[in-house]
Amino acid sequence: MASEAPTTISMLSADDVASRVPELGALLHACVHAGASVGFVLPHTEDEGEAFWTRRVLPAVRSGGRAVLVAQQGGRIVGTVQLGYDTLPNQPHRAEVSKLLVHPDVRRRGIARALMAELEQLAGELGRSLLTLDTRTGDHAEPLYASLGYRTAGVIPGYCLDPFEDRLDSTTIMYKVL
Ligand SMILES: CC(C)(COP(=O)(O)OP(=O)(O)OC[C@H]1O[C@@H](n2cnc3c(N)ncnc32)[C@H](O)[C@@H]1OP(=O)(O)O)[C@@H](O)C(=O)NCCC(=O)NCCS
What we know:
Layout: E1 7-12, H1 14-19, H2 21-33, H3 46-62, E2 66-73, E3 76-84, E4 94-102, H4 111-125, E5 130-136, H5 141-147, E6 151-161, E7 168-177
Parallel strand pairs: 4-5
Antiparallel strand pairs: 1-2, 2-3, 3-4, 5-7, 6-7
Helix pairs in contact: 2-3
This protein binds coenzyme A.
Coenzyme A (COA) binds near residues 108, 109 and 139.
């Protein structure tokens, strides 16, 4: 078996996000179709995935309130996570973790852990000492975040539509003090 290219983690500029929208949309699309509950339900198209990056993420990166980190192997984006820090004046110390996505082909190799380590480093550099997030209750991300020191604040039942089935799923709210 050919050895895998090394994984590098980096932050994308707004122009990088813009030029790599097709790749980022394809990654989101692959994760949703593999069962991820990350805001979308089937039918989910690559166009919808690309529109998410163009309309919701890019403006926030351009205005300086959001960072997009990516994991790349051989120049291909295989994972990503975002840090939202456009907080109101009473929360200058808080930031929100979102859209941690690793391509189904390369899971369980430590890529999510590496992305989260870099994200926490960045949060510290931005003076953010409280990180918050939500994740579907029972998903693989929950033990991942717990192993990284995130604590569960609570569970909200009936929070979001399941991407595949006609039912509502719960979400778990988690936080970490850096
Ligand atoms: C959750 C996700 C990001 C993990 O990515 P990954 O690169 O495979 O994760 P890692 O290899 O860094 O795994 C770190 C830890 O997470 C947990 N974990 C990850 N995948 C798991 C699985 N399939 N089953 C059980 N635990 C799992 C384990 O604790 C693992 O540590 P270990 O391998 O030492 O046991 C990935 O499965 C994914 O993209 N899922 C869909 C999107 C999603 O749900 N994102 C979270 C939104 S909040």
